[in-house]
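Title: Comparing notes on inverse folding

I've been comparing how different people in this forum approach sequence design from structure. To keep things fair, I'm posting one structure and asking everyone to reply with a full sequence. Here's the target:
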């Protein structure tokens, strides 16, 4: 239980109707979970404005209701708190409820279109290699030091998020690293959190089904940097066209990293293979277990973040060589016949280009690339033809297939992808809606020295079809096919 008056110290209140000297049993943002003595926060969501459910809560014994607009009919037993933005208030209240756990951790946020999961995971792994207890909030899995906690969203809702951070504090974690999605920033899910640093990787087309325009998507990312305090650091990739934009309005210490030009932190690729890369960081050479320029950027960000957190530079360099790839991110599988399959989460045009470019840089003309790629249903349709076109431009053979069709028909998604192909590209492209069959076909077509890219799902172990999640793991399927 918490005192209502104490909780209200965390938010900017417009108006209070009722007594603040009362106990709150829990905070909820789902009206269906509102119980006796709880506080309900009415948030205007993407699809639903939960203010509409306030009248249904009359007589249910709630302690308080937080809202942007007071209802016409008030329940005299409830205290109403009016705020300007209830989504912001929810984040601040959630933090206060859990005794502000982010202030007891050194919390670093990673944002950008591509590379968030890899960079966040590797900073977390680096912290543990450096001997610290650390937590991770990511797309693949959350961790409370070594304890795995399944992830449902890239960035959880404020109540779940602060509960996880509180568990990290309780477990003795000193550091925490989290992916900050554009949705989370725009929906104020990170309101109330205190960050010691923010990292920007890059910005390419994605989530336009939600943000509608690239500019709106950019602004959502930038909101995170704009809110960083002066005591924090703001680290950006200046090789990205909007890298400097991220720093425009931040109060934080501005730092930059690059593979191409002068910066505070410079990474360079010396030699690349499918199983690793020889790199330098600020002129110092190290062998890393990653491939591709996109991973070189991720690793440079990890190196820079480690130094900005004050970790010993010598130890950091040793541990850079000990970091291992994240599940489903450029994960390699080898067949007895000399074929290599790369499973990667690449689900945007730019990510597909990055992975295919990395493969081509390594194999040159010594083998063919066969790409298996799809696009998710109920998401940005505009990127579908672009992904198909980019895949065809960089592969000897392309198999368009199903990803997570969700509520759409797979054949409709494939038709959208096919729109991006000219006659030359169509001649080397197959459309196979059954993803398992598509992967099987790719393994049958591949010869010794060839590389198969299976793009789009990476670490995911399911396919979502018509509201149902069916078990499906690209890694399991390709391993099975390589045994045939």
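Reply #1:
Here's my take.
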């Amino acid at each position: 239980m918490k005192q209502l008056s104490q909780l209200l110290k965390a938010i900017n209140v417009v108006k209070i109707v009722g007594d603040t000297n009362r106990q709150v049993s829990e905070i909820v943002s789902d009206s269906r979970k509102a119980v006796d003595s709880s506080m309900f926060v009415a948030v205007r969501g993407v699809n639903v404005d939960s203010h509409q459910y306030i009248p249904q809560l009359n007589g249910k014994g709630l302690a308080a209701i937080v809202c942007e607009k007071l209802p016409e009919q008030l329940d005299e037993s409830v205290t109403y708190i009016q705020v300007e933005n209830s989504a912001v208030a929810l984040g601040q209240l959630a933090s206060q409820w859990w005794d502000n756990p982010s202030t007891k951790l050194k919390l670093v946020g990673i944002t950008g279109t591509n590379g968030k999961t890899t960079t966040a995971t590797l900073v977390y792994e680096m912290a543990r290699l450096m001997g610290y207890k650390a937590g991770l909030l990511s797309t693949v899995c959350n961790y409370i030091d070594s304890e795995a906690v399944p992830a449902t969203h890239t960035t959880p809702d404020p109540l779940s998020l602060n509960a996880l951070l509180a568990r990290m504090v309780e477990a003795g974690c000193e550091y925490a690293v989290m992916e900050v999605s554009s949705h989370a920033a725009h929906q104020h899910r990170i309101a109330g959190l205190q960050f010691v640093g923010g990292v920007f990787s890059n910005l390419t087309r994605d989530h336009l089904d939600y943000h509608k325009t690239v500019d709106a998507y950019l602004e959502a990312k930038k909101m995170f940097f704009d809110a960083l305090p002066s005591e924090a650091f703001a680290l950006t990739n200046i090789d990205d066209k909007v890298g400097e934009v991220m720093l425009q309005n931040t109060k934080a210490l501005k730092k930059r990293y690059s593979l191409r030009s002068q910066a505070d932190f410079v990474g360079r690729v010396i030699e690349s293979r499918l199983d690793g890369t020889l790199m330098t960081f600020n002129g110092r050479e190290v062998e890393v277990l990653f491939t591709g320029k996109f991973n070189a950027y991720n690793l440079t960000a990890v190196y820079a973040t480690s130094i900005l957190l004050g970790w010993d530079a010598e130890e950091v360099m040793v541990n850079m060589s000990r970091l291992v790839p994240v599940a489903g991110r450029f994960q390699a599988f080898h067949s007895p016949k000399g074929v290599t399959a790369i499973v990667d989460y690449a689900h945007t045009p730019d990510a597909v280009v990055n992975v295919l470019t990395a493969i081509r840089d390594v194999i040159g003309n010594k083998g063919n690339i066969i790409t298996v790629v799809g696009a998710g249903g109920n998401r940005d349709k505009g990127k579908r033809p672009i992904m198909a076109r980019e895949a065809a431009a960089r592969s000897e053979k392309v198999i368009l297939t199903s990803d997570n069709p969700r509520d759409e028909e797979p054949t409709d998604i494939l038709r959208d992808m096919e729109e991006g192909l000219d006659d030359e590209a169509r001649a080397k492209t197959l459309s196979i809606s059954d993803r398992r069959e598509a992967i099987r076909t790719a393994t049958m077509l591949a010869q010794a020295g060839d590389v198969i890219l299976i793009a789009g799902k990476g670490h995911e172990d399911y396919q979502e079809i018509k509201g149902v999640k069916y078990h499906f793991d690209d890694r399991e399927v390709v391993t099975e096919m390589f045994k045939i």
